[in-house]
Amino acid sequence: MPVLTRSQRETLTDVWLTGPATLALLIFIFLPITIVTILSFSDYQFGAGDLSWVGWENYITLFTSAIGQRAIVNTLIYVAIVIPFSVVFALLVAIGLHRMLDWAPALSRILRTVYFLPVAATLVAMAVAWQMLLHPNLGLVNKVLSSLGGAPQNWLSDRGLVLYTLAAIGVWQSVGYNMVLFLAGLSAIPNDLYEAAEVDGAGGTWARFWTVTWPMLGPTTLFVLVVTATNAFRVFETVATLTRGGPAFASETLVYALYREGFVYFKAGYASAITVIFFAILLTLTLAQMRLVERRVHYR
Amino acid sequence: QTELRVHYAIPTIWAETQDALAEAFMKEHPEVRIVLDGPAEGYPEGVQRLVRESVAGTAPDVAYVGLNRWRILEDRDLIQPLDDFLGENPEAQGYTPALLSLGHYQDTQYALATSASTLVMYVNPDLVEQAGGSMEDFPTTFDGVIELAADIDALGDGIDGVWIDRHDWRFQSLLGSYGGLPMNADETDITFDDEAGIAAATLYQRFAEEAGMPSYTDSDARQAFPAGTLGIMFESSSLQTRFEQGAGDNFEVTVRPLPIAAEDPSNVWFPTGGSAIVMLTEDPEKQQAAWDYISFVTGPEGQRIIVENTGYAPANAQVLEDRTYLGSYYDKNENARIAHTQVAQYAGPWYSFPGPEGVAVTDMIAAAMVDITEGADPEARVKELAQTLRMQLGME
Amino acid sequence: MNAIPTLELGDVTRRFGEQTVLDSISLAIPPGSFTSLLGASGCGKSTTLRIMAGLDRPTAGAVRLEGREVSALTAHERNIAMVFQSYALYPHLTVAQNIALPLTMKSLSALGRLPLLGTLIPGTAAARKEIQAKVSAAAEMLGLSHLLDRKPGTLSGGQKQRVALGRALVRDPVLFLLDEPLSNLDARLRVQMRAELVALHRRTGKPFVYVTHDQAEAMAMSDQVIVMIEGRIAQAGTPRELYERPASLAVAEFVGAHAINLITPQQGAGEMHSSAARAILGVRPEHVVPAPHGSFTAKLRSVEYLGSEIVLSLRTDQGVELKSIAPGTFEPPLPGDNVRLSFDPTCTHLFHPETGARIGGASECRS
Amino acid sequence: MNAIPTLELGDVTRRFGEQTVLDSISLAIPPGSFTSLLGASGCGKSTTLRIMAGLDRPTAGAVRLEGREVSALTAHERNIAMVFQSYALYPHLTVAQNIALPLTMKSLSALGRLPLLGTLIPGTAAARKEIQAKVSAAAEMLGLSHLLDRKPGTLSGGQKQRVALGRALVRDPVLFLLDEPLSNLDARLRVQMRAELVALHRRTGKPFVYVTHDQAEAMAMSDQVIVMIEGRIAQAGTPRELYERPASLAVAEFVGAHAINLITPQQGAGEMHSSAARAILGVRPEHVVPAPHGSFTAKLRSVEYLGSEIVLSLRTDQGVELKSIAPGTFEPPLPGDNVRLSFDPTCTHLFHPETGARIGGASECRS
Amino acid sequence: MSTLLLLAGATLILLPFIWMLSLSLKPQDEIFASTITLLPSRLEWGNYVKAFTETNIPLFLWNGFVVVAGILFFQLLFSIPCAFALAQRNFRLRTVVFGLVLAALLVPFHVTAIPIFLGLAAVNLLDSYAALILPFIPTAFGIFLFRQFFAQMSTELFDAARVDGLSETAVVWRIAFPLALPAATAFAIFSVTAHWNDLFWPLIATTSPEIATPPRGILYFRDQESGDDVGPLMAGAVIITAPLVLAFLFAQRKFMQGLAAGGLKG
Ligand SMILES: Nc1ncnc2c1ncn2[C@@H]1O[C@H](COP(=O)(O)OP(=O)(O)OP(=O)(O)O)[C@@H](O)[C@H]1O
Ligand SMILES: Nc1ncnc2c1ncn2[C@@H]1O[C@H](COP(=O)(O)OP(=O)(O)OP(=O)(O)O)[C@@H](O)[C@H]1O
Ligand SMILES: [Mg+2]
Ligand SMILES: [Mg+2]
């Protein structure tokens, strides 16, 4: 007879299966988060020998300083643009490509790769290409715009515009990612539902979409929303490579702010406070999103 | 054999230079082995890395850092004073007081400049001529520059007259041209809200309003100038090589010194960009080897290598005075000569602001310049800026 | 009654690439009839149904609905209701909404269907009320009234099936198509649903076309059974015709609760039946009965007790394997014993050894 | 033979949270027997089987394998083979690999199982050869030899089923557990596989426990049928015992090809049967037969023709609904006509109106 | 109509890539030109030559491969058993662990970078492959994706394996893992593209050029101080993007299946 009881052995198995991953999560994610949270109540300067506790001061600064508020508002605006546009475009593209699979599978697959390219691209180089395309004077975008009779714009140096430019690039980056997820969702919709809709009189393009496609994509959409939201909230790389938060903090976002405060200014304490706020916003929104949508999406 | 780990940034400029320096040095000092760390992308990233590595205990022994960045390391007691090594008479080795001032803080020498650059004007002679000006009597005052720029701007579609970045270093340069200073000597007060500072800031607005300066980002401008659509560009002398390559045969990139606006030219100074070298190692034995290396790269031979490879201005008087080192180089590089003369004449420290907010406030200066370019009242805005800085830096 | 069939297929052929899935199918669905399409998996039943519904189009041939050629009409213009094998319920809609969908699509404009705005369009409220009433009536009839607010995900198989039926019923279509609607149910529920379907058919008076691969289902429910084999119609007729006069060996093998006994001429079963020497002889197990004075004997190999009946597996001395069905009350001998058997002579079938076509046998099997 | 049952459950109870799924189940599987667990969906059959296999653990009670208490052993330590309803074939392995897997796990070390390295470990080659041989033998026996290199995805239902069986067979386990292995097959294939299973059972000589909700299957195959109702054992016995002497109303309703006719005392069917006044009378449809001199009459409501038999739905004047089964050759009157019927008096059952327990009736139903 | 729109959209998406390709083939003096030309007047392979000679691109690609493969290997090694247990086993802390996973899904890496940097320094692992690989081993996204995938697989299959004598570890690696291959392909694409292109962490954790990853490698041509060396930068970008695009083309079929079968059905 084995030394351990069956329950004990089962527990050991569970530990053996989940332990390593859980431990890794704790060490590489939750331990750092804890440290960061603690530091957010201090004035710690990275590299400095000492620190003192300052209570909520960092938080107060964040919420009262113009730049801090700007970062929060900018992030929210950015997210509010990127989520709907990238999700809707991705959905349209996915539906188009899915249909194309029937009569031009090769083209459909090529286009799928094209739309996916931005996900695979190296931003260091893409940023340079974007800068050249968006050049106020020499860039293709403005040249096309003015040849169509529009007024050229300072895409990256106009304070009123820069955030929207970044958001557009954000959409460019995430359409492919979302499209792939939607395509997968589309291919999982059983064909007989479309046929039932057809027999029931919902045969038109829109009727089909609203009766079958959209509701059946519910879980996919939820997943896409969560992934897009978390990625949009974390916007950092485009800001860092294209505008460095400028001009005059017009494109400052939360993660860029925490990067700048922590890494460029070495204000680790303050950066930690930004982190905590960022995390709190993200957690709240994601939970709310899941709560609100989850029930409408899993048809039980 | 002693091993020295050396950190540097900006591989585009420095990679080959560093190899050449290390090779030349090791030939002279076979007992020392130089190991180069992988370079950092830029000076800010470089100093970030040094701070992190110091915290982690993996810092290199010697590092090249941005001239305005070594104070961050000093603030954290990460770098060693060099006074004992320099000896009694540094000037004899080519370290003039002006050059030493770049690495001097509170009576201690922490860093030595290895390469220098100041703000200059890059000019597109073709556009100047089209606008009816000439390179022979190129304006030497800001008024003249603005007038010429306005003429160039008027050439029409897609042609811009002048551009200057809205940035701390550029502002300090204009300020220096007017003879103003950002802070008082003991760093207890902001002083750029005087006449000189307001005049310097007003230039931004005048460029924009009178000469139609576009609101480019720096990369926009760096693309526009070599493309031949920008007449006059205020930029660091270190961009010379890239601009010449970019313009190719289209036009001849020409460098002109910054206008002097102060009534008393002896007050004029230009903040110096470029890099300094600092010693991080605390091991006495290594320190000696490190000093040997530092004195080699800041000495005439090292400086020759640096100037010839990077286009930076030298930071040792001996190379400038003694034509045997760089004479033939300057004969071929008129633009470099102009830029380096300006450095020799007016080199001054690139002020970094004291305390934990020191770096952060430079972004506020830049933001204020954006406001002013876009129409804010210069005087009011500069005063407000000064006041904000005093608060941030804990000067009140 | 009307002489024009509700639906007619005329020489319908359907090819997918190289493969001919339907090969010149002609059939007619009379008004008010209950027709089963019976066939093995892959024989083309669903394809036929889809062509009737307008979900698929024939490569060649005509589809006539109430005498009118309808090849040009799409599915939703034909007013045909279809129940899918997998039910194809919309998981995001409640039972009531599922049932109401076809009506909503028909009687409300696109605007009127919008959740809030819709109420503002004139006539919408009245139309909605009418739909409501029809849905309630259908639900009542199907015993779904208490489930109207549930989502399909929470229903059992039988309930789902009734919702799918409800969605078809509520429309008042000219024809109902049902694609193996019972195949997902367990045995007992299947029998029960069968009866409900028949009752439903009687109540609506509309023709039903019912696809199944279960011969028992087809036999029990239909006026007309169409047996399909590999894309062709092997036989069409009443259940009794199929059972008593199968047109071919294949049909005979397909129809009947227990597999038919087949005796080839080579097996030299001449002693069992006089015709067995030149043709394949088919006798259903229920017509091979133990009889003290039977015409031949066979050795009992195994016995399956099914309660109401007992299945005997036997082998004759010539090596012919036979099954015989005795009533449940029959006391079987021990396996290994010899049993004396006789054929019911009025219930034998003869098929051509090569073509499998029926070449003789009893014309009517009544004892 | 051995007197110790191969497997025994002693008062096994299983709760999931509040819900008691198994309530004090005791049963014994004798060596070499074929036992069916019969019950409606959700009655706890699978749970019982999983407890036997060691995949689940009883909340209370003992599991004895060959007399030894095995609660402490996990599934992979028990040497019990199990065939799942969905076959649970490993889709990424070929048929041969699927069948070989249990052997590989048993006879090769972890290292030896590695694709290339494995060949270097001493003894591996020999062990692999042996496995190969066993797999070939099992495949031969099941007629799978030509399919060994195929992936399960390309097999038909019946073939899959045989692979699943092969995987169980190859191991030489002490006991076979089969959880509704035939429920995914179509009717005809089901009957055929049934026979194959029985043959297999005979060949291996190992006890089989067979879960099903199809009473016909249970009756046809088993030595012992255990009827489970809502987590309890309602009756255990031979098929004939169950059919002829159902221990309760519930069992009687469950067993038999057609639902039993039940007549409650309130329906005042005294004229049909003398005992019907104090108890619930149960008569199977096959024992209600049209007879010219039958004891009562009923009105014919509908007729289902099944080929070998005909199901008549009738209603007496008192409103009692009855089914009767006549042979397929019977010529039924028209619906609406009256039919004279009689009960087979030796085949009636009486149940207590409240508890449902059997309180009388024929002890043996032989005519 | 919709096809035209799709093609137009694709062109928009492609625009920067076309630009990148065109720049990588342009000589210096055409890169900054006042007129827009898509095709260079002469093909300038010099940018590629420069990209190859001035930096050690083959080495960067190799490093990228080692790091990306290492990360993926350990991510799978850790997340698959955990996801399997979360989906197919019942244990007391299951909700807690799953909660941790969901929360971790939301944490951007920037937040944890510095503490991890210090931790790695403390155990002397900085500036090594380990430093590039270790922090990415815990992948909440991976655990989440695989859990969704396993959750909708039938328990019977795993029970069958248990009855067949497989231990839980064997069930995970011999049955669950091969079945999860499509999902793993999907996950691999996301993981590989993210870590291949990651610049943030390699810049923090490594200094030696010997272990530079591709983006860190082409950073060599990026320069604030004296202006980017655009031609070689773009050439380098083309070289390091190409393997990913090829990988996507190869993997896309498996990948789509994986997502379709996996977590997306809720
Ligand atoms: N869209 C299609 N493309 C190619 N072949 C098809 C298509 N639809 C059906 N088939 C083929 O046509 C044949 C008949 O298919 P169908 O679905 O009509 O059979 P069925 O009788 O309904 O079978 P089952 O009982 O399995 O549902 C099959 O061999 C199938 O493979
Ligand atoms: N893991 C579980 N947790 C909670 N309840 C369960 C679990 N497993 C089974 N049950 C419940 O136990 C009861 C019996 O389930 P079981 O699967 O044994 O039924 P069954 O007789 O095999 O039914 P079927 O014929 O449908 O397979 C059901 O009500 C089921 O909901
Ligand atoms: Mg079908
Ligand atoms: Mg079950």
From TrEMBL, chain A:
A Pfam family recorded for this sequence: BPD_transp_1
InterPro entries recorded: ABC_transporter_permease, MetI-like, MetI-like_sf
Gene3D superfamilies in the cross-refs: MetI-like
The entry's keywords: Cell membrane, Membrane, Transmembrane, Transmembrane helix, Transport
Record localization: Cell membrane
Transmembrane segments: 21-41, 76-98, 110-133, 161-189, 209-233, 268-288
Alphabetical list of SUPFAM superfamilies matching this protein: MetI-like
Protein origin, superkingdom: Bacteria
Record's bilayer topology term: Multi-pass membrane protein
Boundaries of every ABC transmembrane type-1 domain copy: 72-289
Primary localization class, coarse: membrane
Similarity comment text for this entry: Belongs to the binding-protein-dependent transport system permease family.
Protein name: Carbohydrate ABC transporter permease
Organism: Fodinicurvata halophila
TrEMBL record, chains C, D:
Residue stretches making up the ABC transporter domain: 7-255
PANTHER family linked: MALTODEXTRIN IMPORT ATP-BINDING PROTEIN MSMX, TREHALOSE IMPORT ATP-BINDING PROTEIN SUGC
PROSITE patterns found in the cross-reference section: ABC_TRANSPORTER_1, ABC_TRANSPORTER_2
Official protein name in the record: ABC transporter ATP-binding protein
Family designation: Belongs to the ABC transporter superfamily.
Keywords: ATP-binding, Cell membrane, Membrane, Nucleotide-binding, Translocase, Transport
Matching Pfam families: ABC_tran (PF00005), TOBE_2 (PF08402)
Any one GO molecular-function label of the UniProt entry: ATP binding
InterPro entries reported for this sequence: AAA+_ATPase, ABC_transporter-like_ATP-bd, ABC_transporter-like_CS, ABC_transpr_MalK/UgpC-like, Mo/tungstate-bd_C_term_dom, NA-bd_OB-fold, P-loop_NTPase, Transp-assoc_OB_typ2
Automatic annotation (TrEMBL), chain E:
Domain ABC transmembrane type-1: 61-251
Membrane topology qualifier: Multi-pass membrane protein
A Pfam family this chain is assigned to: BPD_transp_1
Top-level taxon in the UniProt lineage: Bacteria
Compartment(s) where it occurs, according to its Swiss-Prot or TrEMBL record: Cell membrane
Transmembrane segments: 57-84, 96-123, 129-150, 171-192, 230-251
UniProt main location, coarse: membrane
Keywords: Cell membrane, Membrane, Transmembrane, Transmembrane helix, Transport
Family statement drawn from the similarity comment of this UniProt entry: Belongs to the binding-protein-dependent transport system permease family.
Name of the molecule in the record: Carbohydrate ABC transporter permease
Lineage per the UniProt record: Bacteria, Pseudomonadati, Pseudomonadota, Alphaproteobacteria, Rhodospirillales
